[in-house]
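ARCHIVE CARD
CATEGORY: sequence design from structure
SOURCE FIELD: tokenized fold
FIELD CONTENT:
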């Protein structure tokens, strides 16, 4: 799935900084630090709270239940709905940027894993889950100090099944990273919308980010 992408690049910068090029200087300082390369031997650690995460609509959640459960089992998408959830994110650089976002749910922790690589022409590809059961190509832009990702291609890989969704029915993924200056925090908000079904997944919250020694 997107394995034939032949314009993947190697860069000492983070994938986001490489995709933005000179525009990386337009980011708010909080975001500039977050999207900068992580020093060797270090790990970027964010701790915060998701105000909401998952699929809010119970009808859509029931309709997509089997698919969401499979994606959750593979560490790609949280299939339930929860509010005020503490979370921890750990970022590491090396062959792109890998991230682990752990939701500290009341019953158990759950971790979403992904790896981002740089493409040409200001784009990135993000593969989610283990193995990469979801993949999306994004345009990367900046606006008034924020970073925004908008998907241009989305695909699914489950076993031998590989699906690249036509644009007319493909999920539309949008992620915005911004600075919450009032509290000195970073804000993240993601939405996934599908034609006819509407919003099938989202998360939004704030966190504080630091570089720590990788244990």
């Amino acid at each position: 799935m997107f394995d034939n992408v032949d314009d993947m690049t190697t860069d000492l910068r983070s994938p986001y900084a490489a995709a933005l090029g000179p525009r990386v200087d337009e980011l708010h300082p909080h975001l500039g630090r977050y999207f900068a390369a992580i020093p060797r031997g270090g790990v970027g650690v964010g701790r915060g709270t998701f105000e909401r995460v998952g699929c809010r609509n119970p009808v859509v959640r029931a309709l997509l239940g089997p698919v969401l459960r499979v994606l959750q089992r593979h560490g790609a998408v949280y299939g339930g709905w929860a509010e005020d959830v503490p979370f921890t994110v750990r970022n590491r650089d090396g062959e792109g940027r890998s991230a682990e976002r752990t939701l500290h749910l009341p019953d158990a922790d759950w971790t979403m894993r992904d790896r981002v690589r740089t493409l040409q022409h200001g784009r990135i590809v993000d593969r989610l889950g283990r193995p990469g059961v979801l993949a999306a190509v994004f345009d990367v832009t900046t606006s008034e100090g924020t970073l925004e990702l908008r998907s241009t291609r989305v695909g699914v890989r489950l076993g031998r099944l590989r699906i690249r969704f036509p644009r007319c029915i493909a999920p539309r993924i949008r992620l915005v990273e911004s600075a919450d200056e009032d509290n000195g925090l970073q804000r993240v908000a993601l939405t996934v919308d599908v034609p006819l079904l509407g919003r099938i997944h989202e998360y939004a919250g704030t966190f504080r980010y630091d570089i720590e020694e990788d244990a």
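CARD ANNOTATION: The chain has one domain: 15-37+45-209. Residues 38 and 93 are 6 Å apart (CA to CA).
SHELF: design records, drawer C
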